[in-house]
From TrEMBL, chain A:
Chain spans, region Disordered: 22-45
GO molecular function: branched-chain 2-oxo acid dehydrogenase activity
InterPro entries assigned to the protein according to its UniProt record, in alphabetical order: THDP-binding, Transketo_C/PFOR_II, Transketolase-like_Pyr-bd, Transketolase_C
Protein keywords: Oxidoreductase
SMART domains: Transket_pyr
Cofactor(s) for this UniProt protein: thiamine diphosphate
Reactions this protein catalyses: N(6)-[(R)-lipoyl]-L-lysyl-[protein] + 3-methyl-2-oxobutanoate + H(+) = N(6)-[(R)-S(8)-2-methylpropanoyldihydrolipoyl]-L-lysyl-[protein] + CO2
Annotated EC: 1.2.4.4
Domain spans labelled Transketolase-like pyrimidine-binding: 81-256
Organism expressing this protein natively: Amanita thiersii Skay4041
Stated name of the protein: 3-methyl-2-oxobutanoate dehydrogenase (2-methylpropanoyl-transferring)
GO terms under biological process: branched-chain amino acid catabolic process; generation of precursor metabolites and energy; response to nutrient
Automatic annotation (TrEMBL), chain B:
Oxidoreductase among keywords: yes
GO MF annotation list: pyruvate dehydrogenase (acetyl-transferring) activity
Catalytic activity: N(6)-[(R)-lipoyl]-L-lysyl-[protein] + pyruvate + H(+) = N(6)-[(R)-S(8)-acetyldihydrolipoyl]-L-lysyl-[protein] + CO2
Organism of provenance: Amanita thiersii Skay4041
GO terms under biological process: pyruvate decarboxylation to acetyl-CoA
Stored SUPFAM superfamilies: Thiamin diphosphate-binding fold (THDP-binding)
Name of protein: Pyruvate dehydrogenase E1 component subunit alpha
Location of the Dehydrogenase E1 component domain: 77-371
Entry-linked CDD domains: TPP_E1_PDC_ADC_BCADC (cd02000)
The protein's required cofactors: thiamine diphosphate
EC nos: 1.2.4.1
NCBIfam families: PDH_E1_alph_y
UniProt xrefs under PANTHER family: PYRUVATE DEHYDROGENASE E1 COMPONENT SUBUNIT ALPHA, PYRUVATE DEHYDROGENASE E1 COMPONENT, ALPHA SUBUNIT BACTERIAL AND ORGANELLAR
Length: 414, 411
């Protein structure tokens, strides 16, 4: 079992290393050094110190958040990190500042299959960063027990696909304990990290996006970051949030997304979406890996590559698309989304999980109710099909830039 | 089918030759010296039946146990109170005042009361859904338990949990999911070890839950990390409606921990239960030997839950025989009378006191109002970190938690 897991994961890591400029456009590969942005060249990534330190919503742990917004960034340093380094950096800060914090999971002591805990066992000791048996349900229950004692438990489920044995503990125990004990007990110190979404070749049990399954579990929070800065700030906020949080890290972004990440202790707000690109004609809402597919699709719309040129009406090419990263899936930021859709009149939701009862279904229902008279087109969902993420079909299953641009065109010309 | 039925009825479980089964009588402990008559707190020695314990990779506990008159009388009163509380719950359920699920522990009082007398207040206990006596013994109140069952504000979880959801600071609750509390207990024990506390966690589960995968996962983690966790199997012979022999390939539950040693205990004799718990606590805390499995062989008189009459999978005669020959309360009553610790009259007075306490608690619990409507949405997220709206909170589904908080302040 273990060797299978390790072999699979090293197979996952290798191609990422070979193709750091993995493109999000599946149907029409861009020319070498092409004009379409992917993860490596995304404009949403903050690759300079100044831009990184001015990340919207950032709160520094050493500054009083109730004070006036000073926006002074002098004296703070950044370091170039990819997502797994940023995750590691966040956990290192959590362990350093909180003596009760421990990290445990399958293979975390030697760094984890995605290297997120690299060196932490050496740095903080094997009592605080330790391996568990292959026992996902046990890990979750154990973490709940630890957290119910007021400790900070940072559990890792090696792949989000393996979270299902722990589903009972998470939904029935972690989510409900505050309620069913009348507020006497809580597991606010529990954070479950798990790598999610597809890499293009993960197959049935290494490419799923299970965030939607937890959406009905009131009491939980679900967070999915899109970049290194987001990962660090949101993970630190999740670890310190007084509610149990499932923190899902898009695994293809571990290496491919690189930013200048502030080295200080900081947090980004949970429950808040971020508008990455403002617009007025259509709201494009997504989270995790598809953020970059959406960005690619927006470029395809404004300057279509030759292959799809004929399919993009000239009249639509100047459309202003508003790109929103939802970031927290539960509780999701209804206000930001609804405010945006009321302005644009159109919504396209993109996620990797299947269509039926996916997160997009909940968002569409809520938006059509709140924005019914403002909508100029039905809410469109671009998602994985209602299918297992089968290995050979993964590229067809993942919503790519072409499917997104097609949905944008359809919605704009409705 | 008729011939099959005839074949089934007289069938007896085969007894293994050469293995003496555990003694489950409640009254076979012998007095070794006369109890001191003047001071009720002076200990004296009694000797348990030699088949009170079976061991697996560990030494047998001493059969000679030190007890005091005070302790035995307290235990008697507590066991009576627990039984009467469960009987009151039964009556309230049948009067349709308690709704939903309700699992009673009548017949198993020696485990909950014996456990409490063998551990310290700052040890931790976690159990499954048959949790009412543990909640009271661990610092709760009878009113709090009955109030919770009735879904009233004075319930221990403010009426929001119900039967399986009762907690105290050292009791991590009844837990409704079969077996789910066992790895949680391992986590609690780890936290104790991590903090260097001189305490143990007692994680209880039943013979039915013992076959859940996560129970074994918890065993493994506890042994791997040498946690001060005592895994307590309350073997009441039936997992819901299935006899232990038909659900478990190995019904010697104390041997199922692999490298974890185990102790099988007569769970009907409270003095044996007390001695076993003291042994387990010393094992896990003082001797730092890591986890231990403790199996109490006990019996529940009632059905699995209120919707189970408890007579479809066992005979009425079997239940009656257990009641008349193995009852833990009658056993202790006999010790107290035979050893000259109290007269029948004095014990009757204790019974009356227990009954009066329960009757008063029932009335007090009934008087408490049901939870407020607004608390339907509290305790999901911590105050101040709630989502801006929650589905179903009101017809418009657009109510804002901030407004609700303001309401509360101005009210």
């Amino acid at each position: 079992m273990l060797t299978t897991k390790l072999r699979l994961s090293s197979a996952l890591i290798k191609p990422l290393r070979l193709h750091p400029r993995w493109s999000s456009s599946a149907a029409e590969p861009p020319p070498a050094g092409g004009h379409l942005p992917g993860v490596a060249t995304s404009n949403t990534l903050r690759t300079t110190r100044d831009v990184a330190l001015r990340t919207p919503g950032i709160t520094w742990a050493d500054e009083d958040p109730s004070g006036p917004d000073r926006n002074i960034v002098g004296g703070r340093e950044t370091r170039k990190m990819n997502t797994y380094q940023a995750v590691r950096d966040a956990m290192s800060i959590a362990l350093m500042k909180d003596d009760t914090a421990v990290i445990f999971g399958e293979d975390v002591a030697f760094g984890g299959v995605f290297r997120c805990t690299m060196g932490l066992a050496e740095e903080f000791g094997k009592e605080r960063v330790f391996n568990t048996p292959l026992t996902e349900q046990g890990i979750a229950g154990f973490g709940i027990g630890l957290a119910v004692m007021g400790h900070t438990a940072i559990a890792e489920i090696q792949f989000a696909d393996y979270i299902y044995p722990a589903f009972d503990q998470i939904v029935n125990e972690a989510a409900k304990i505050r309620y069913r004990s009348g507020g006497q007990y809580d597991v606010g110190g529990l954070t479950i990290r798990t790598p999610t979404m597809s890499v293009g070749h993960g197959g049935l049990y290494h490419s799923q996006s299970p965030e939607g399954f937890f959406m009905g579990a009131s009491g939980l929070k679900i967070v999915i970051p899109r970049s290194p800065i987001q990962a660090k700030g949101l993970l630190l906020a999740s670890i310190r949030d007084p509610n149990p949080v499932i923190f899902m890290e898009p695994k293809i972004l571990y290496r491919s997304a690189v930013e200048q990440v502030p080295v200080d202790d900081f947090a980004l707000p949970l429950g808040k979406a971020e508008t990455l690109i403002p617009g007025s004609d259509l709201t494009l809402l997504t989270w995790g890996t598809p953020v970059y597919h959406c960005e690619t699709a927006m470029h395809m719309l404004s300057s279509p590559p030759p292959g799809i040129n004929a399919h993009i009406p000239k009249s639509l090419r100047d459309a202003k698309i508003e790109l929103i990263d939802l970031r927290t899936i539960l509780p999701w930021d209804v206000e930001t989304v609804v405010e945006s859709v009321k302005r644009t009149g159109r919504l396209v939701v993109v996620h990797e999980a299947g269509l039926t009862a996916g997160v997009g279904a909940e968002i569409s229902a809520e938006v059509q109710k709140r924005c019914f008279l403002k909508l100029n087109a039905p809410v469109k969902r671009v998602t994985g099909w209602d299918l297992p993420a089968a290995l050979q079909y993964e590229k067809f299953n993942i919503p790519d830039a072409v499917r997104i641009v097609d949905a944008i065109v359809e919605t704009l010309s409705y | 089918m008729a011939s099959l039925a005839r074949f089934r009825i007289p069938r007896r479980l085969p007894l293994l030759h050469g293995v003496r089964s555990i003694q489950t009588t409640a009254d076979t402990t012998q007095l070794l010296q006369n109890a001191p008559s003047d001071d009720p707190s002076v200990p004296f020695t009694v000797k348990l039946h030699e088949d009170s314990f079976h061991t697996f990779n560990c030494d047998k506990p001493e059969l000679e146990v030190q007890v005091t008159k005070e302790q035995l009388l307290t235990m008697y009163r507590q066991m009576q109170t627990m039984r009467r509380m469960e009987m009151a719950a039964d009556a309230l359920y049948k009067a349709k005042m308690i709704r939903g699920f309700c699992h009673l522990a009548i017949g198993q009082e020696a485990v909950s009361v014996g456990l409490e007398h063998g551990i310290r207040p700052d040890d931790r206990v976690i159990t499954a859904y048959r949790c009412h006596p543990f909640a009271v013994m661990r610092g709760g109140t009878v009113t709090g338990v009955l109030g919770e069952l009735l879904g009233r504000q004075n319930g221990m979880s403010h009426g929001k949990g119900g039967s399986m959801h009762i907690f105290t600071p050292s009791f991590f609750g009844g837990n409704g999911i079969v077996g789910a509390q066992v790895p949680v207990g391992a986590g609690v024990a780890f936290a104790q070890k991590y903090m260097g506390e001189k305490n143990a966690t007692f994680a209880l589960y039943g013979d039915g839950a013992s076959n859940q995968g996560q129970v074994f996962e918890a065993f493994n983690m506890a042994k791997l990390w040498n946690l001060p966790a005592v895994f307590v199997c309350e073997n009441n012979k039936y997992g819901m409606g299935t006899p232990a022999e038909r659900s478990s390939s190995n019904t010697a539950y104390f041997t199922r921990g692999d490298k974890i040693p185990g102790l099988q205990v007569n769970g009907m004799d409270i003095i044996a239960a007390l001695q076993a718990v003291q042994y387990a606590r010393k094992w896990a805390v003082d001797d730092e030997k890591g986890p231990l499995l403790l199996e109490f062989v006990t019996y529940r008189y009632g059905g699995h839950s209120m919707s189970d009459p408890g007579t479809t999978y066992r005979t009425r005669e079997e239940v009656q025989r257990m009641r008349s020959t193995r009852d833990p309360i009658r056993g202790l009553q006999r010790y107290i009378e035979e050893w000259g610790l109290a007269t029948e009259q004095e014990l009757k007075q204790l019974d009356k006191d227990a009954k009066a306490e329960i009757d008063a608690a029932v009335e007090e619990a009934k008087k408490s109002p049901e939870p407020l409507t607004k608390d339907l949405w509290s305790d999901i997220y911590i105050k101040g970190s709630e989502p801006p709206f929650m589905r179903g909170r009101e017809r418009e589904e657009a109510s804002v938690f901030v407004l609700y908080c303001l309401d509360e302040v101005t009210n």
